[in-house]
Design a protein that fits this description.
4 copies of one chain form a homotetramer.
Chain A lengths: L7 H15 L1 H4 L8 E6 L5 E4 L15 E4 L4 E3 L8 H10 L5 E5 L2 H9 L8 H7 L5 E2 L8 H10 L6 E4 L3 E6 L2 H23 L8 H14 L4
Parallel strand pairs in A: 6-7
Antiparallel strand pairs in A: 1-2, 1-5, 2-3, 3-4, 5-8, 7-8
Helix pairs in contact in A: 3-6, 4-7, 5-7, 5-8
Pfam families (chains A, B, C, D): Aldolase_II (PF00596)
Organism (chains A, B, C, D): Friedmanniella luteola
Protein name (chains A, B, C, D): L-ribulose-5-phosphate 4-epimerase
Chain lengths: ~220, ~220, ~220, ~220
């Protein structure tokens, strides 16, 4: 089926953005084969744009992206949506400030997830971006709302824009899809660095007041205005 | 010697596919130097197409690929076939559902192989693709059917399409050569992730019933129809 | 505001150099996203050239580089300078022999930093470049001179041109910006190699007299005259 | 000074080969910055071709390669030879069957070297290429024949074409410079794989008779005739 012409231009732009952001996943070594996906909320509509299921990153174009509603049902597109669409859709339906969602099985983050162990906040880079630990979400099977519920409930109790779903892998969110991709990149980097730090001893803690100061500054003063 | 014209077009297609799939081995960091190979069964014939021995991945073209029978003897091609051809041939001769075979010495999978330790199924991605642990095959010397027998006997007792030959490295199979390459990529990724997980503790187990559900869904509902 | 024409040509050259050297950070896998920066002192002036804040490495051109004074205030450029500019500026103001500064969160160096543990000098390559251990600087919050002071005080007591700021990451210096980038690359490499060495036992020490001989030779006889 | 015309064509060919082989060092992630070098013996002459000191791999051309005698003295070329030239020259002077030498500080091999611990032969790939353990050479300072002597004395007591100089890094040899590069690539790969294997337990040994059989076959039957 086809959407009305008025939102056609907006959809084209979101398709282009989501297709381009998928290239960041292999470039930042967050995925192998087809095991990761990016989605974006369509502004002003209860719709999302996401990767089709099982398609190689090399073959992704704006045209191959699919449009779904916030219950994960296909609205526009010729291919089946990512099998993770239901989880993405649940996040958009329940967290209105979220404009983008990313899911990967990036190696180090998934290793923490498989032990069910949150990543402690022992790096200034981690305080900047995540404002504290990266938490663990529940074990949940694909096929219904379990994964989406686990993500939303975990994120609602943490500053972190990343959650490690147990035995599964990280989901990250952001105000935009690009911000969610950045969170996915930094999630893997802090997962790797803290893992390596702990291999030879215990990292030194950062006082909570200092974590708070770093997080506040980075969220409000970093980058170009 | 030269094969009859009727299968020439089919052979050309298989040569192209096998040559192209070899590029995935260095791209996915599964091999160094010339230490890995992909083969495909020629549809409807007791033949396989495989890499020539000791040739750099950069120098592989469809024309350099060689054709062997299912006892590993050269049928067409100007170069000696891969020294692993006998193992590939044995697999095709004994597992009729297999259309592709891949052998590498990918780092983490080979590390598990050198300890003779199967990789436990503690990741949803691993349940999806392998349906359980990735098993160990026996120590076997190159030169006769020992490696092929070890692969076939081990795979017959497991869902896994990957086997880690002791002190040697992984062999993977698939209905197509591309599926076998995918299994090789995911085998190394789960070998790496579970290794890293175990460096700092014990991964949480996934209940067998959940492994079964994940495997069933992924084998039957994932990707494009 | 705009600087007088006489130093325009010099500034253009420094902008080109600093922009080009930023490409070495992702190329040598020292950074993810925008998390690292290079600066250079403007010869004969109390000025430095540095990366703008939060801009992708792909988007850096000589024109986007910004010029600041040695208190970290913007002198020329349309964008906000890197949020690490105050630390760079403090180093130039207090260490007159320094012509370049690099800051990254490179993985292994940051892991040592998070434990507050200096890297012991157990490699000839490390004796050559750093002349001894790579020391730890204090934990310091961004926002005033604390980081700059910590860098300067630590470097003044060591031969090393690298310092690992606790829970934060490495800063390196050099007579030129290129030399500071080289130090950043070698800092991460020795952090990685010594980490890996210590995972399976204790590296053998190098006698101090041998460290001294290696350092002296490398600083005075290596490379082209 | 300039050599007679008769060997000019041979030298040009060796320069091209050595320049091209240097590209394999960064491509196979064996080096950072300028920290590695390849040399080749000039056939029929007591000469070698090697990399100039401290020059970036990107700037290496056949013309920049330098020619030295077997005492390491510059014979032709406008730049200072690699500071490791004396070690290369000593190897050619004392091991007449060697046609190529490679030196790197590749990460995992150097980690074993810093502990002074030989790499045990627990992989079939390692038995194939090295025929047994990769041994440790003595700690030796640069500046005289100590490094060359340590390499030669160690290699004379082992099948291995790689030696790990203590606290320093690997040197590899081969009948050709390309074979020495292959040995450097495989040395790092087995150093990495056996390191990873030992992180989670003890690799299973391979019986000496099997190591012998694998080595004999690979040295005599592998590749194209």
């Amino acid at each position: 089926m086809s959407l009305t012409r008025e939102i056609g231009a907006v959809l084209d732009e979101v398709r282009r953005e989501v297709a381009a952001l998928h290239a960041e996943l292999p470039r930042n070594e967050l995925v192998v084969w087809t095991a990761g996906n990016v989605s974006a909320r369509v502004p002003g509509r209860d719709l999302l744009v996401i990767k089709p299921s099982g398609v190689s990153y090399d073959d992704l174009t704006p045209e191959t992206m699919v449009v779904c509603d916030l219950e994960g049902r296909l609205v526009e597109g010729e291919r089946a949506p990512s099998s993770d669409t239901a989880a993405h859709a649940y996040v958009y339906a329940h967290l209105p400030e979220v404009g983008g969602v990313v899911h990967t099985h990036s190696t180090y983050a998934t290793a923490w997830a498989s032990r069910g162990e949150p990543i402690p906040c022992v790096l200034t880079m981690m305080a900047d971006e995540f404002g504290g630990e990266i938490p663990i979400g529940p074990f949940a099977l694909i096929g219904d709302d379990s994964i989406g519920q686990g993500i939303v409930e975990t994120l609602q109790h943490h500053r972190s824009r990343a959650v490690l779903m147990q035995n599964h892998g990280p989901f990250t969110v952001g105000r935009t899809a690009k911000a969610a991709v950045k969170a996915a990149v930094l999630c893997e980097e802090v997962a790797r660095t803290v893992h390596i730090a702990r291999q030879l001893g215990e990292p030194l803690p950062i006082a909570q007041a200092d974590v708070d100061r770093l997080y506040d500054r980075y969220q409000n003063a970093y980058g170009q205005r």
